[in-house]
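hey so i finally got around to running both of the ones u sent me last week. sorry it took forever, my laptop kept dying halfway thru and i had to restart like 3 times lol. anyway pasting them below in the order u listed, first the sequence line then the structure token line for each. didnt double check formatting much so if smth looks off just lmk and ill redo it

first one:
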Amino acid sequence: MSDGTGVAKDPKVIDGKAFAEGLRAKLARQVATLKEKHGFVPGLAVVLVGEDPASKVYVRNKGEQTKASGMASFEHKLDAATSQADLLALIDTLNKDPKVNGILCQLPVPKQIDPQAIIDAIDPDKDVDGFHVVNAGRLATGGKGLVPCTPYGCLLLLKDRLGDLAGKHAVVIGRSNIVGKPMAQLLLNESCTVTIAHSKTKDLPGEVRRADIVVAAVGRPEMVKGDWIKEGAVVIDVGINRIEKDGKGKLVGDVDYASCYPKASAITPVPGGVGPMTIALLLNNTLIAACRQHKVALPE
């Protein structure tokens, strides 16, 4: 197997970067179809409050990829001293703007702002992060909500690798509202048997050893060891942690890649695994939201 450059690719490694590139290319074609047939393009508004360096890079990447897909990008960069009332007023304006189909407020926000209040203020039908309680409820009850981007990306990678997931035993390590809980719900909706493990789980390694699918989303560098993994399991590593190694900064996941790789039938690397999927699925959610708001079918 080659990546087109003559360099052999490891079939065991799940290439999220390549998958995301393919998804963005499809999105660009769909956006072009919407513009040609229906006379509109989806619009994504991203709000950044303050100067968090990682958030600034992430917002810039979102803007670039939004424009590259042919969508309209609306960036709102606010001072770190912005009040909650002023931010809520901006959200209200964006909720009412027909050109804005998706709204994302980049987290974290400064301490004077309650992040939950901001999430709650976003119109659920424009909540492309999928964090609003209405979208969480829709996911839990099988409704047509907007699904959180990272777990949705994980699901697509799993289905691309395994096909039908029905009957698989999946262990999700982590119970956050952003990844763990929606990931478990998505897997349940695919007819997996799902275990949610966390810091209070007794015999965590033993629980993980039973899994056909392991999704690690705890934010602890290289916590999941190779002897936790059942032979032939598929391992999805959501974690992105910066550590010092050999005097240099290095990005690692929540999975000890070196020891888990030999046991797994497929595994995501860090970086280049789940990470690239998040923005691609954000754009996908924006496309879905725009089609629903305009009451047109999603282009093929």
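and the second one:
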Amino acid sequence: MTKVKETMKAVGLYKYLPIDHQESLIDVELEKPVPTGKDLLVKVQAISVNPVDYKVRSPKDRVESVPKVLGWDVAGVVEQVGPDVTLFKPGDEVYYAGSITRPGGNSEFHLVDERIVGKKPSTLDFAQAAALPLTTITAWESLYDRLGVSKNQADNTGKTILIIGAAGGVGSIATQLSKYSGLTVIGTASRPESADWVKGLGADHVINHFEAFLPQLKAVGIEQVDYILCLNSTEKHWANMAEAIAPQGKICSIVETDELLNLTLLKNKSVTFVWELMFTRSTYQTPDMIEQHKLLDEVARLVDEGVIRTTTSETLTPINAANLRKAHALLETGRTVGKVVLEGF
């Protein structure tokens, strides 16, 4: 007797279309996957959207033969585990961002390598937890792995960080982690509501990213900054960053650019420039992949201790194509504060 294959609901795409097109994201039925190796099969409870979602979905001349599923922020419950899994068991509540090289999490069930998964913060519900993984990994790796910020508060006394785009998803976490690490935090924001959000997360000062940085920094008594984390338009802020960074300072950006950057602007100050992409470890299966599991567990502890708070700003329900199109459209405005989350199939 032939076993009937189980199916699941998902949201995917065949064509890469503008978000106002009804077929840009569609509801589909897919075969329910089976975990092998180090994979967990997770029953998805909530998801969140990030700029990577609409960048992957952006219009292009390509048609998929099977639905492409997006989504790189998940909170859910482990349903089954592969034979090589050692970190989790069925019933565990988890949160993670997943891998850009595999199907995303906008589906009822999702496969993910256990080495990039963390235990969900116990004090958060699934929607609140789903807002965290991608932005948390990006902020953590930017600060501690790329910029080399010490986790010891005493080491950071008198040191400053400028976070460009501090009100967004990554900026909201980076602001909190920077403050927790003992840095003086200057965040950029351009509207009263985003400035209030950044101050509420612990920023010591807020400046406007549409104006020259250095005069604004000097106005609050800061001559230069030790670290810069750029979360918005690398090329647009390049000259401003080169001017504001301290000699031997470090700049990290997460935003790709199509324009050439004049690295010579950094030479006389011996400034370090480094990129951050949180998918690097999973894409290249680096030997230290498990560091994402460890950092997600550490952040869960900080959340449960009240040090870090979730950055959910809007929750839509249920998880379906119509609501995901709405979420993508919101993100594409570039004016969202915090994270947009979807909950429940």
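quick thing i noticed on the 2nd:
Residues 139-275 form a domain with the Rossmann fold fold (CATH 3.40.50.720).
anyway thats it, ttyl
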